[in-house]
Design a protein that fits this description.
Elements: H1 2-22, H2 33-39, H3 42-45, E1 50-56, H4 66-80, E2 86-92, E3 96-103, H5 109-112, H6 126-137, E4 145-152, H7 169-184, E5 186-193, H8 203-206, E6 211-213, H9 218-222, H10 225-242, E7 246-251, H11 254-260, E8 264-271, E9 279-288, E10 292-297, E11 302-305, E12 310-321, E13 328-336, H12 340-346, E14 355-356, E15 359-360, H13 373-397, E16 404-409, E17 412-418, E18 423-427, E19 439-446, E20 453-461, E21 464-471, E22 475-478, E23 481-486, H14 488-496
Parallel strand pairs: 1-2, 1-4, 4-5, 5-6, 7-14
Antiparallel strand pairs: 2-3, 7-8, 8-12, 9-11, 9-13, 10-12, 13-15, 16-17, 16-23, 18-19, 19-20, 20-21, 22-23
Helix pairs in contact: 6-7
Length: 505
């Protein structure tokens, strides 16, 4: 295979120099497949490949000298390979048999030495042949690039075989194996028919992209197998490359354009991440989100991007509609390349890159007419007054708490919580193991009179709850506990021995 690569490099160099010398200064030569191969460096870094050849040895192959012709053409194929290419040679009729597997090396005659002198098989089991070829390519040491060549002069004739019918599960399994193999390797498959009507084309049921080769094309096709593998490698490189989007970034105040209804200057920077493929862009148009209208003027008719290059375009933007939220504008363009004929023709690729990148469009701010500014100020002042009144009302209706909440069981204190502030969250004291998991709240309140302190509690422990107003000195049930409230004033009176407020007459 490498011989072809070196030949391409030489031919490209000589032909390119001669062509450029003969063209006018204003003319540019069209990009050909050789130019693309050379640009990718494949004329220098071509890889070794694996070749799997399956030769029909059923008795009919002897007719018309077909078997001898195949042996000669295979000799030409082997001669075209590099020494580090690897060949697996199999014959098939009723069964498949390996005749050679190894590197081409220096002794090329050894590759074909194992072929039988004549074809003597009874049947033509094409499915078994393809299965054996797949087995060769499924080895752990198989190269990334591989060729699989099926040569036959007959139709499927495999009585008693798993592959007797193309509708059998065995043939479906072949397709599954081939798809899995192709996910990891670049495989060029060839179905070679040595007569006008054969079933060699059944290989396309396993490898859909298999090339069908007639008897008259065998010699020519074999001489280009290495070229086909280089093209497969090129397609692999470029498919990965152009799967990435081109990007566009925006600079300019689109929010101002929307708010004031006046055009603004913007800059659009378009960048390519392709290391090899040159790009052309034309037919630029804004791509806004629904509810937004954007007009761009001043953009050029077309631009060219060198591999890995970028360009900044100046334009004027006019924006109407609804901004804010997810509102944004992107850019659409017709994207082409000088390499397009080669990529879509010679390499069988689809070139449809995307242009990604958007600019957000913020909502236009609300601007009041000058006559409404005093009114708006008055409304704002009124609202501030209402808020102040509500805060004062809250302070009056929710007094500051003092004193204790005491959890009691069977007349004994279990735990105490000191109350403070107007509102507070309630959690169990660290030492109160029995109350672990306690959650709730307490807020200041008033009892029967404005002077009587009280608290409003809402507590929960497991499935046990207590909610309600607790007066000073009073309690509420809480499962097997009671929750008692004692104000700070009551505690002070108790300590100094003075009568409590409720005992005064």
């Amino acid at each position: 295979m490498h011989n072809w690569s070196r030949m391409v490099a030489a031919v490209v160099g000589m032909a390119g120099a001669a062509l450029l010398a003969s063209l006018p200064a204003s003319a540019a030569p069209a990009t050909g497949v050789e130019d693309v191969i050379a640009a990718l460096g494949l004329d220098v870094t071509s890889e070794a490949a694996d070749y799997v050849v399956m030769v029909d040895t059923s008795g009919s192959m002897n007719a018309g000298g077909r078997y001898d012709s195949v042996r000669r053409e295979l000799g030409k194929l082997v001669d075209s390979l590099d020494s580090d290419d690897r060949v697996s040679l199999l014959t098939f009729d009723t069964k498949a048999k390996s005749r050679f597997r190894g590197l081409v090396g220096a002794n090329r005659s050894a590759v074909l030495a194992g072929l039988p002198a004549t074809a003597k098989g009874k049947h033509t089991d094409l499915g078994t042949a393809i299965a054996s070829g797949l087995t060769e390519l499924e080895r752990a040491d198989t190269r990334r690039l591989a060729a699989l060549i099926l040569i036959t002069d007959g139709v499927l004739d495999a009585p008693g075989s798993d592959y007797e019918s193309v509708k059998s599960p065995a043939w479906k399994s072949l397709r599954t194996r081939a798809a899995s193999l192709s996910a990891e390797h670049q495989v060029a498959a060839y179905a070679v028919s040595l007569q006008a009507s054969t079933d060699a084309g059944l290989l396309k049921k396993v490898f859909p992209d298999a090339r069908e080769v007639s008897a008259s094309q065998v010699g020519e096709r074999f001489s280009h197998v290495g070229e086909d593998l280089v093209l497969l490698r090129a397609a692999e490189i470029l498919n990965h490359e152009v799967s990435q989007p081109l990007t566009v970034s925006w600079a300019g105040d689109l929010g101002t354009a929307l708010a004031k209804g006046t055009p603004v200057d913007v800059q659009l920077t378009i960048s390519s991440v392709y290391p090899h493929v040159p790009v052309t862009l034309s037919e630029f148009a804004p791509r806004p989100t629904p509810g937004l209208q954007v007009e761009l003027s001043g953009l050029p008719d077309s631009v060219e991007l060198a591999p890995g290059g970028s360009t900044t375009l100046n334009a004027t933007a006019r924006v109407t509609g609804t901004g804010g939220g997810d509102a944004a504008v992107g850019l659409s363009a017709k994207i082409g390349s000088p390499w397009l004929p080669v990529m879509e023709g010679d390499l069988g690729m689809t070139f449809a890159p995307e242009l990604s990148g958007t600019a957000p469009v913020p909502a236009a701010p609300i601007e009041l007419p000058p006559t409404l500014v005093p009114v708006a100020g008055g409304i704002a002042g009124l609202l501030a007054g209402v808020v102040l009144v509500l805060l004062l009302a809250r302070m009056l209706t929710t007094p500051v708490m003092s004193g204790l909440l005491t959890f009691r069981r069977d007349g004994r204190d279990v735990a105490e919580i000191v109350l403070k502030g107007r509102r507070m969250k309630l959690v169990a004291p660290t030492a109160a193991i029995d109350l672990t998991g306690l959650r709730g709240s307490a807020r200041g309140a008033r009892g029967a009179s404005a002077q009587e302190p009280a608290v409003r509690v809402d507590v929960k422990l497991g499935e046990t709850t207590a909610r309600g107003l607790v007066h000073d000195g009073g309690s509420v049930p809480f499962g097997d506990l009671e929750l008692r409230y004692t104000s700070g004033r009551r505690r002070i009176l108790d300590k100094i021995g003075l009568p409590r407020p409720d005992a005064e007459g």
